[in-house]
């Protein structure tokens, strides 16, 4: 059984919910990523912020990224997967919630992220085709 930890991209980094959107954009640039998990004071997942969130929910509506906090942009319940979950559970989570990225948590700490690229690297062509059809067919 292949686990989430085996297919994830290790080294994901939190951003605090109190940090500004401007800082989130800077960190995304430094890390060359388009998404950051957002943590509370106890380094527990409380949201996710994407580059698209920054553009559409902050800049496009005239908010100041230097004054807007990451928590201002986080909506809904953040989704995550346990590091020991098998790949089928990962695929179900991505499919059921129609999301493209999934933080991986081990012992209540962030240990990595799984993206569509990670899925593509670890599944057969038939499995990838089936996954893509299930996730994007209804969009």
UniProtKB/TrEMBL annotation:
Alphabetized Pfam families for the sequence: CBS
Source species of the chain: Nocardia aurantiaca
Keyword Transport among record annotations: no
Cross-referenced PROSITE patterns: CBS
Cross-referenced InterPro entries: CBS_dom, CBS_dom_sf, Diverse_CBS-Domain
Domain CBS: 8-65, 73-131
Name of the protein described by the UniProt record: CBS domain-containing protein
Keyword tags: CBS domain
């Amino acid at each position: 059984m292949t686990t989430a930890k085996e297919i994830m991209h290790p080294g994901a980094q939190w951003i605090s919910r109190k940090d500004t959107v401007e800082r989130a954009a800077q960190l995304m640039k430094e890390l060359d990523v388009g998404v950051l998990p957002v943590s509370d004071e106890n380094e527990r997942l409380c949201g996710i912020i994407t580059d698209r969130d920054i553009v559409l929910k902050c800049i496009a509506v005239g908010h100041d990224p230097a004054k807007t906090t990451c928590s201002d942009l986080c909506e809904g319940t953040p989704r995550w997967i346990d590091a020991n979950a098998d790949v089928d559970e990962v695929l179900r989570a991505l499919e059921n919630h129609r999301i493209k990225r999934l933080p991986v948590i081990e012992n209540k700490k962030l240990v990595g992220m799984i993206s569509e690229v990670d899925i593509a690297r670890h599944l057969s062509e038939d499995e990838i085709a089936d996954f893509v059809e299930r996730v994007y067919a209804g969009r």
